[in-house]
Amino acid sequence: MKPERLVSSQAEQLLGWWQTDGRRDPAQKPWMFKSDGTWPLPEDSLSPYGIWIAEVMLQQTQLSVVLPYWQRWIMAFPTVEALAAASLEQVRLQWQGLGYYSRARRLHEAARVLVQQPWPRDLDGWIALPGIGRTTAGGILSSAFNVPEPILDGNVKRVLARLHAHGRPPSRDQHLFWRWSEELLDLRRPRDFNQALMDLGATVCAPRRPGCDQCPWRDSCAAYASGDPSGWPVVEERKPLPFQVIGIGVVINEAGDVLIDQRLEEGLLGGMWEFPGGKQEPGEPIEACIARELMEELGIEVSVGEGLITVDHAYSHKKLQFVVHLCRWCSGDPKPLASQQVRWVRPEQLKDYPFPAANARIIEALLGKLNQTNQLERPGMGS
Which of 100, 72, 103, 105 is nearest to 87 (CA)? Predict the structure, then answer.
């Protein structure tokens, strides 16, 4: 019986802290509140739609970043029916900037399933949907319906690793971390407990310089007892990220249209639009790289002109440097030899297409350049 008393004591400590110091503001988590602006009681249910969208957006992304995206998303697609009826292009455009773009496609796919059935009320029902794993399903079920399902996101893993001073990376012992999360869960108030646990990790048990003085579990935390809680979680040895230079061509024709292509569906940036280009070969001048890539990918000849911008961008698995040049289209009908489709668009229409985050600065530089050129070409300018 002792472990049960300890768990109950820890749950009470955490919930007591959360009542006064947790993120219980509807301006921070609007999806967690009832329509009258109050926090739900254990017997209350919430709309699972907004919670589902928030849970997917919050994967590996901070709450402060997610909030404006969630608000814009709900304005564009206020119901699961609206999301299911939207085009995939519209969905990607709303997701643009959040990264992990395959999640937008899976939300769209799941919405088309959900409009044909009731909202799932168990773990298996949610996990059967595209893009839903156990922790996302547990977060939705506990938040929307107060179902006693544990969660195990990055914040929770960090809290548990420190609580137990676990000597291995959490990824190596997922089953153990799931057991710890389940053992701690308050079965009477799983919604509140899971929110409190995530809030503790996000606001107190931070990755660097944890605020142990404010932690309700300080006295039972093995990492705190060690004198250096920042030493946990134990992390895998990280290898240096590979680096690659990418030559990008912003191709403009005589009419002033800009050439863009849509990536194939698979991969990290599947389905997103981009300016064409590719990897620079060893010893290859960047201008030659751009000309070669545009011939290989689109079957066109271009005249590579002045540099437009250089953008450094890091992904979780590699670092890229995009070296972007303006190009004049010379010959060849663009063909999607390595993409879904290609399209000539007016520069002002670029905002209507979902681009990866790294392309935002390219678009900004292009529009600034074109605006500057137009200013100089006006009568009385530049003379």
Answer: 105
